[in-house]
Amino acid sequence: MKRFETERLILTSTTTEDATLQLAVMNSEDWINYIGDRNVHDVEAAKKYIEQRTLPQFLRLGFGNYTLSLKSTGEKIGFCGLYDRDGLEGLDIGFALLPQFYKKGYSFEACQPLLAFAFNEKNYSKVSAITVPENKASIALIEKLGFSYIKDIELEGDDATLRLYELTKENYAA
Questions:
Q1: What is the Cα–Cα distance from 170 to 81, expressed in whole angstroms?
Q2: pLDDT in tens, the chain (174 residues)
């Protein structure tokens, strides 16, 4: 599996060994408010979520969700990934951190090698990003990464209205 490094982070493929982190992130206040309760309320449910939602994409495409660890300490702080999401054309980039690591530039830093990978190694022509309109911090990050707002959408099976953003290979500035 592909591994990425940045100045401060190591991104490794998420496995069931990351279930405790998955549980903590998915039950954080912002995850619940902006993404929704996915009924992952114990470590076993988190392992099952990873087995059913994360690992199959890695097996199919060779990339997906990555666990972010601090280079300086090895501490796991969240996730960032490229997702083949039903209802969206191409790839979708996403990120989620433990709240104590917000506003330190980690999500922006983690997205950089994934965007380079999508455009330069996998030759995708665009990458999407989605979030609810109320998630101002994610919108700010998505725009800082160079994504442009396209339209509001609804994905099948989800009641939330989502803002769809796209970054094309032509507009990507590495």
A1: 21
A2: 789 999 999 999 999 999 999 999 999 999 999 998 999 999 999 999 999 999 999 999 999 999 999 999 999 999 999 999 988 988 999 999 999 999 999 999 999 999 999 999 999 999 999 999 999 999 999 999 999 999 999 988 777 899 999 999 999 876
Q: What is the pTM of this model?
A: 0.95
Decide: helix, strand or coil at residue 45. Answer: helix
Residue 19 lies in a domain: yes
Tokens read off for 64: 């997906």
- Edge-to-edge order in the sheet of strand 65-70: 4-5, 9-13, 65-70, 76-83, 91-97, 126-131, 162-168, 148-153
Quote the CA–CA distance of 59 and 108 in Å, as a whole number.
26
Beta bridge partners of 152: 163
* Domain of 119, in residue numbers: 4-124
Is the residue at 30 inside a domain?
A: yes
Number of domains in the chain: 1
119, 168 in Cβ contact below 8 A?
no
Q: What is the spatial distance between Cα 77 and Cα 134, in angstroms, rounded to a whole number?
A: 23
Residue 115 sits at the vertex; the CA angle it makes with 114 and 119, to the nearest 5 degrees, is 120
